[in-house]
Amino acid sequence: MKVYDDQNIFAKILRGEIPCNKIYEDNFVLSFYDINPQKKIHALVIPKGKYIDLDDFSLKATSEEIVGFLRGVNKVAVKLGISNNTGKGYRALTNISIYGGQEVPHLHFHLFGGEKIGKMVE
Ligand code: AMP
């Protein structure tokens, strides 16, 4: 059973120990721009709770946290003007563990937009 690492970089951002370029925040999520953008718009959305990845979150988060997180993703997309109502769409992606290529062990959704995103998987 994996244990959440309190020293991961997103935990430090949540605690305010490291700055971020903030897009949106509420009781459930924090969203900020990726430091190494892969597309014209590259945002990250993370839950405030200590969850390693989507599997961990799905298993352990409360219903309120799950709803809050997903609503937060939508709020960020609306704010960035990339949602299906406010723009031309985007790709939401989350990496899980080793084969998923996850680098930071705190659940995060990548939101890619602002241009055509292209092939789904390399
Ligand atoms: P993943 O490979 O899915 O774990 O993605 C981690 C992402 O976090 C990468 O796209 C990094 O560029 C991004 N990242 C790492 N450190 C920071 C940071 N301090 N602020 C913003 N994004 C970061």
Please provide a written account of the structure.
The protein is an alpha+beta fold and 122 residues long. It has one domain (9-113): HIT-like (HIT family, subunit A, 2-Layer Sandwich), CATH 3.30.428.10. 29% of the residues lie in helices and 20% in strands. The chain has 4 helices and 5 strands, in the order H-E-E-E-H-H-E-H-E. Strands 1-2-3-5-4 form a 5-stranded antiparallel sheet, covered by helices on one side. Bound molecules: adenosine monophosphate. The site of adenosine monophosphate (AMP) has 13 residues, from loops.
In short:
The protein has 122 residues and is an alpha+beta fold.
Rough shape? globular
What is the succession of H and E elements? HEEEHHEHE
Radius of gyration: 14 Å
Helix content: 25-40%
Q: What proportion of the residues form beta strands (DSSP E)?
A: 15-25%
Secondary structure class reads: alpha+beta
Strand arrangement, major sheet: 1-2-3-5-4
Total number of strands: 5
Number of helices: 4
CATH architecture descriptor name? 2-Layer Sandwich
User: What is the makeup of the main sheet?
Assistant: 5 strands, antiparallel
Mean pLDDT: 97
Distance between the termini: 30 Å
CATH homolog superfamily = HIT-like
The low-confidence parts are none
Identify every distinct bound molecule in the structure, by name, code or SMILES.
Answer: adenosine monophosphate
